[in-house]
Amino acid sequence: MNEPVAATTIIGADVGGTYARLGWTTLRPGEPIQVNGFRRYACADHPSLAAILRDYADSLRGDASIPPVGRAVVAIAGLLDGDHLLNTNLAWDVSLADTRLQAGLGELELINDFVAVAQAIPHVEPEALHALSGDTRHRPHGPALVLGPGTGLGVAVRLENSQPPVLASEGGHASLAAGNLLELDVLRVLLQRHGHVDSERILSGPGLMTLYTCLCEREGAAPRWDTPAALVEAARNGSDRIATASTRAFCGWLGSVAGDLALTFGARSVYLTGGITGHLADWLHEGDFQRRFLAKGVLSPALQHVPVWRIDDGELGVLGALAWHADDACRPNTTGETP
């Protein structure tokens, strides 16, 4: 009798404010999760999340070699409030029931994007890990802090021998603290504009631009760049001193916040993710990140052996969505159907 493959063949998606990344796998006991058919969609080019899911599912259904696919897990920034996703960074509203119906899927699950990233940590290949600090010869047991600057600042903790295995966090919205005079000047400016300055106000893609404009204002210079890509390129080629100062300040400040969060959660390891960390890799590995990560006064020794890695894996969110689905013990029924 043939195995009912439709019940174990699923789509995984990682949806952000700019891009949606999709892949598929067929889950089989004892086999590692393999992301197949990886594809990236520009969200602005599509009228809805359902349209992206349907387009991808239809492309799979047209391939006779791929087992039938009737379900999907979508890792997406935001909070599910009943049937509606609360999110300020997406190009469209998302209804869970409507998306499932319009995409032509039998089952659809929405999970927080950083829960998915943390879920993927045990599945990351060693060659995707780039050491930043601490003893990185081994990946220790115990809580793993995962954080990533992107459209916002995602924070989660991967736990061991726990259900659910991931502790979701809104640590990116905790108040940002200054560690030097430059950061105090930046916070002073931002506090005059905002009632609350959280970490992602600076430690995100948009935040890098905020930091840059604050440093320009501090030095009485007119901003020359209006996108993170342009700013990073100017810093890389040495054409703009303030752009270079901004990337270095960003990496140092990120190190400080990472150290604070590692102490807060008692993390035994730390993983940096997100596309912006790849773009800033040269400065992250320069040393300011590590120095600020460890600069915690009498508790500095507690962090000296905590390994910190930068993950370079563009399929991480998709892998995490699929891994989350594979863990039956932590998977709730989010389809609105009776199990």
Mind explaining what this structure looks like?
Mean pLDDT is 88; it is low at 1-7 and 329-339. It is built from twelve helices and 13 strands. Helix 3 crosses helix 12 (316-326), helix 6 (228-237) packs across helix 7 (241-265) and helix 7 (241-265) packs parallel to helix 10 (288-294). It has helices at 49-61, 96-103, 113-120, 181-193, 205-219, 228-237, 241-265, 275-279, 281-284, 288-294, 300-303, 316-326, and strands at 9-15, 19-26, 36-42, 71-76, 79-81, 84-86, 107-112, 129-133, 144-149, 153-158, 166-169, 269-272, 308-311. 36% of the residues lie in helices and 20% in strands.
Topology of this protein?
Blueprint: E1 9-15, E2 19-26, E3 36-42, H1 49-61, E4 71-76, E5 79-81, E6 84-86, H2 96-103, E7 107-112, H3 113-120, E8 129-133, E9 144-149, E10 153-158, E11 166-169, H4 181-193, H5 205-219, H6 228-237, H7 241-265, E12 269-272, H8 275-279, H9 281-284, H10 288-294, H11 300-303, E13 308-311, H12 316-326
Parallel strand pairs: 1-4, 4-7, 9-12, 12-13
Antiparallel strand pairs: 1-2, 2-3, 5-6, 8-13, 9-10, 10-11
